[in-house]
């Protein structure tokens, strides 16, 4: 599941809306919506994110947060370390090899290190209350 998929599912379940009903209301297939929620499809289009925001009455900061989560939710990531240090390349490769073995507390610690290196807690994660699965 992606951060965007997790958030959309939480919104949907919080309003007691079925996946099938939401898909019909948004004029998309339920298979596509399910694939987005489960991280089987890539990032949603900006138009779909806006539709989802309108559907749930999400505005301002919460809408921006959902847009950020969508941008962070591509299930197949490519990391280009060309021109970076050998340590950067090693880190990218080791993470790719072992990410499936990492539990939630370990992922939270790694995300915290990245957030700290970027100057603080990720705004999208803090505002949206996203938890890793």
Supply database-style keywords:
8 helices, mainly alpha, 0% strand, 434 Repressor (Amino-terminal Domain), single chain, disordered C terminus, 2 domains, 133 residues
Give helix and strand order, one letter per element, not per position. Answer: HHHHHHHH
CATH topology type of the largest domain: 434 Repressor (Amino-terminal Domain)
Count of discrete domains: 2
Low-pLDDT residue intervals, each spanning 5 or more residues: 123-133
Task: Give an overview of the whole structure.
This protein is an all-alpha fold and 133 residues long. It has two domains: 3-71, lambda repressor-like DNA-binding domains (434 Repressor (Amino-terminal Domain)), CATH 1.10.260; 86-128, no CATH class. Helices cover 64% and strands 0% of the residues. The chain is built from eight helices and no strands. The protein has helices at residues 3-14, 19-26, 30-38, 46-56, 60-71, 86-98, 104-117, 123-128. Helix 1 packs across helix 5 (60-71) and helix 2 (19-26) packs across helix 3. The chain is elongated, with a radius of gyration of 16 Å. The model is unreliable at 123-133 (pLDDT under 50).
What's the short version?
The chain is built from eight helices and no strands. It is mainly alpha-helical. The chain has two domains: 3-71, lambda repressor-like DNA-binding domains (434 Repressor (Amino-terminal Domain), Orthogonal Bundle), CATH 1.10.260; 86-128, no CATH class.
